[in-house]
């Protein structure tokens, strides 16, 4: 577990270690089957897999990278345009979201297991069944790692989590736990998932009111709550930016007063959340058909 967090070279060596990933997955599957998701060994195994999934898209071996990204060659660099919130145009993002992964192997081995739907379902099962905070956080964190980035793999994993494995109810439960880092990781995962336009309606319907409910009523003092609040605002931004129905849903969940309060704070400890709330407000105002509702 310590070695798996030692940096890129350590991760690479461990991913290449024959039988290691397969053994970890096998052990966790056995623990779930035996209804023992809370043992320390399971926590260790999941934490190792969490670390080995970090920057996986960037650090993939050449052979896997060619196989996964061969369908991206039609996405031209000419489609990139500068913009306020990133350098990638919507056109590029939509093309990437439509790019499927090569067909999944029914019996994955080694590093292939790290993004396979079997392991995604294992993480979701542990999120639902384990009461151990580190196990919950590592499972959420592994899914967060796998859904980071804009390539076809993160978007394929996101679709599996939301649509194929029905993972949103389990993730939503984690928004209401008392452990701050578990909550923060759950929100960060939802932020990644919400970048996928084809999943935004499902996510908004399932968790938007919950996201609004965990926004602080007043300015929180701790850094971790500040970061969580900023992530919530950016998730809501993704969900409402191009969807006035979702913006209306935010309004009906009484989110506007909270967002205004957060945006008006200028103290250094809260500037990250304040900026995120301001970006969200600016985006919400772009739905001109909702102006009269906002004013009320």
TrEMBL record:
It comes from the Eukaryota. Signal peptide: none annotated. Residues 79-109 are annotated as: Disordered. GO terms for biological process: cell-cell adhesion; desmosome organization; heart development; intermediate filament bundle assembly; protein localization to plasma membrane. Its main location: other. Belongs to the beta-catenin family. This is PKP2 protein. It comes from Circaetus pectoralis (black-chested snake-eagle). The lineage of its organism: Eukaryota, Metazoa, Chordata, Craniata, Vertebrata.
């Amino acid at each position: 577990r310590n070695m798996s967090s030692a940096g890129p070279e350590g991760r690479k060596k461990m991913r290449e270690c024959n039988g290691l990933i397969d053994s970890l997955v096998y052990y966790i599957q056995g623990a779930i089957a035996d209804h023992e998701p809370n043992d320390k060994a399971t926590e260790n195994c999941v934490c190792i897999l969490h670390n080995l999934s970090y920057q996986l898209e960037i650090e993939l071996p050449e052979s896997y990278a060619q196989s996964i990204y061969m369908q991206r060659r039609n996405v031209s660099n000419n489609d990139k345009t500068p913009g306020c919130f990133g350098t990638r145009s919507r056109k590029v993002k939509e093309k990437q979201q439509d790019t499927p992964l090569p067909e999944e192997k029914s019996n994955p081995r080694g590093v292939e297991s790290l993004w396979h739907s079997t392991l995604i379902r294992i993480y979701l099962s542990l999120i639902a069944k384990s009461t151990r905070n580190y196990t919950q956080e590592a499972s959420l964190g592994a899914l967060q790692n796998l859904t980071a980035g804009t390539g076809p793999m993160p978007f394929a994993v996101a679709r599996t989590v939301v649509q194929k494995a029905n993972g949103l109810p389990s993730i939503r439960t984690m928004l209401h736990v008392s452990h701050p880092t578990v909550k923060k990781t759950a929100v960060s995962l939802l932020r990644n998932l919400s970048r996928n336009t084809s999943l935004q309606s499902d996510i908004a319907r399932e968790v938007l009111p919950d996201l609004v409910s965990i926004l602080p009523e007043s300015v929180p003092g701790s850094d971790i709550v500040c970061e969580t609040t900023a992530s919530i605002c950016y998730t809501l931004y993704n969900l409402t930016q191009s969807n006035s129905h979702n913006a209306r849903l935010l309004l009906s969940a009484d989110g506007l007063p909270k967002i205004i309060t957060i945006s008006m704070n200028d103290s250094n400890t809260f500037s990250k959340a304040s900026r995120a709330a301001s970006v969200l407000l600016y985006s919400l105002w772009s739905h001109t058909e909702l102006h009269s509702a906002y004013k009320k």
